[in-house]
Amino acid sequence: MSNSFFSIRETFGKTITELGKQNKNLYVVNADLKTPLFLNEFARRYKNRFIECGVAEANAAAVAAGLAKTGKTVFLVSFACFSPSINWNTIKQSICYNHANVKIIGSHAGLLSTDLGATHQMLEDVALMTSMPGMDVFAPVDAFETEKIINTVFRSPKPAYVRLVRPATPSIYPKTLGFTIGSSKVIKPGKDLTIISYGPILNQALEAQAKLVLELGKKAPSIEIINCSSIKPLDFETIKKSVQKTKRLICIEDHQQNGGLGQIVASLLLTNGISPKFIHLAVDNQFGQSGKFSEELYDYYGIGISNLISSIKKLL
Amino acid sequence: MIFSRSASPLEKISQELRIDLLDMIYRSGGGHIGGSLSSLDLITTAYFSDIFNFKKDHFILSAGHLCPSLYVVLARLGFFHKKTLATYSSFGSILQGHVSSGVPGVEYSSGSLGQGLSFACGLALGDKNNRTICLTSDGEHQEGQIWEAVLFAKKYKLGNLINIVDYNGYQIDGKTSDIMPLGNLAAKYVQFGWTVTAVDGHDFNQLQNAYKKAQNSDYPNCIIAKTVLGKGISFMENNCQYHDVKNLPENLFHKALLELKTT
Questions:
Q1: Are A118 and A102 in contact (CB under 8 A)?
Q2: Taking Cα atoms as reference points, which of B176, B189, B192 lies closest to residue B223?
Q3: Pair A34, A77 in one domain
Q4: A217 lies in which domain range?
Q5: d(CA B222, CA B99)
């Protein structure tokens, strides 16, 4: 792909700083990660609305909830491996059960945290947050969609979790396309097989498709690719329509199989009496590990481009 | 002993609420009676003296299992009908087993210990013109999150925050000093930069003075209230078997009721 690379987390920092300029009610509650999340400018400009909690994610979550109850819109910011991981129960009780309008930003999700290793490669956050009553869950595919999602959740009255990643990633989301909560976008239409995904790993579907065209020419399968960036609420109708047409489904995600999008969709399909040929490419009950390149980690854990291509061939 | 001295208005209310509380837990089939009886006077003083105005000030019950004491106070204040108390923790009742903001007059739902003080910090930070009172238990101070909040309140100079600790010395499994000793809690709070007052948690004058003294300043306020688990019912006092009671036998209910009525 010839797309430019942009940083999702840097875009988050810029977007929130811009929103902070227009909205005096916007607060950021931080747990000592303002630099990696590009919030130095926000902290400098809006000193009184930047609440630094230090390395204390549980306290930060409940402070955010209390602040939200005084009428502020609050973004709780950390790495996904700490928030919503360390503070899951605080999010459950103090944010969700108390209906506090807090937006949880979890950066550095997935194996894309490469060299940082297993403790920092959050592979369970989608499971943790989709199981939480009252919580919306979003994962932008790139920097452009990040900007749209942050603007959307800022206006939403509900708690939300937004999953961000560490490296700069290819930008594929059309700048003119909006973002709607509960809506999945068909990135590329096709008729032989459906691939669903979220976050930057979705790029592999586009790459796989391009490689198959190179390899097979006109005999290459026609693949429909769906960006499920709104993981909860999920636009199941778009997935259902596609799968009823293609009869084949692959879900690929930088997350554990257990509690991931693939299991959510498989359950919905069965409930609706739809049984496509199905492969779920996700981390299978393992911890991550350090690596210098996401490609080597993706290959090791069976979610690399070669795994995807062989899965496509297997289903056709 | 009956009417041997004239009770102050707060004492009289507290005596009546203790009977409501016993009745509520007996009729509904159970509840955390020991800590509710120890914390009742702290809540009664906050709500029935004229120190706070809870139309603006905030009351956060961090130790959510102590909700029977808050529920009887709110019923008496007319937030809901007293008859509702008997439905406590029953299916369909607004009175959840642990404190719930679905109950009129309740601002924060809790049950998982250690979070309320952090939530209170957020409220105190976002609403500096009013006061936030948080009730925690001594056992709850074993939760690490409490100390995260204690650091935070000092950093942000939350002088409008009061943490009142129901220090009854017991938790589910036994004495707090055996399960996990807190050491000198007052000294710890002082070291963390809070203003600390120690009171007898069943002395209404001391409680009122401590609440009054905890006025807005640059320092958050901690009131350590020494209380008695199961206060007012002899066989429950300092008996951690009565941390929680299920299906209190009728004879014990009447024994307890008689004690409360003749105190």
A1: no
A2: B189
A3: yes
A4: 185-315
A5: 22
Enter the pTM of the model: 0.95
Domain tally, chain A: 2
Residue A134: list chain B partners with CB under 8 A: none
CA distance B188 to chain A (A): 19
Q: In this complex, which of B115, B125, B151 lies closest to A94 when CB atoms are compared? A: B115
Of all residues in chain B, what percent are helix, strand and coil, respectively (each to 5)? 45, 15, 40
CATH of the domain at A100: 3.40.50.970
Q: Does any domain span residue A175?
A: no
Return averaged pLDDT per consecutive 10 residues of chain B, 263 residues in all.
Answer: 64 97 97 97 97 97 98 98 97 97 98 98 97 98 98 98 98 96 98 98 98 88 98 96 95 97 87
Q: pLDDT tens, A137-179?
A: 999 999 999 999 999 999 999 999 999 999 999 999 988 889 9
CB-CB under 8 Å, B148 with A59:
yes
- Mean pLDDT on A62-83: 98
Provide the 10 A C-beta neighbour count for residue B82: 13
CB contact under 8 A, A66 and B124: yes
Does A215 score more than 60 pLDDT? yes
CB of B40 closer than 8 Å to CB of B25: no
A177 domain-assigned: no
Whether A179 is in a domain gets the answer no
CA dist B244 → A200, B26, B68, B173, B177 (Å): 51, 12, 11, 11, 19
**Contact call for A63 and B110, based on CB within 8 A:** no
Q: Is A178 within the bounds of a domain? A: no
Same domain, A152 and A236: no
Check if the interface score ipTM surpasses 0.85: yes
Q: Are residues A17 and A160 in the same domain?
A: yes
If asked whether residues A102 and A218 sit together in one domain, one would say no
Domains of chain B, CATH where assigned: 9-236+246-261 (3.40.50.970)
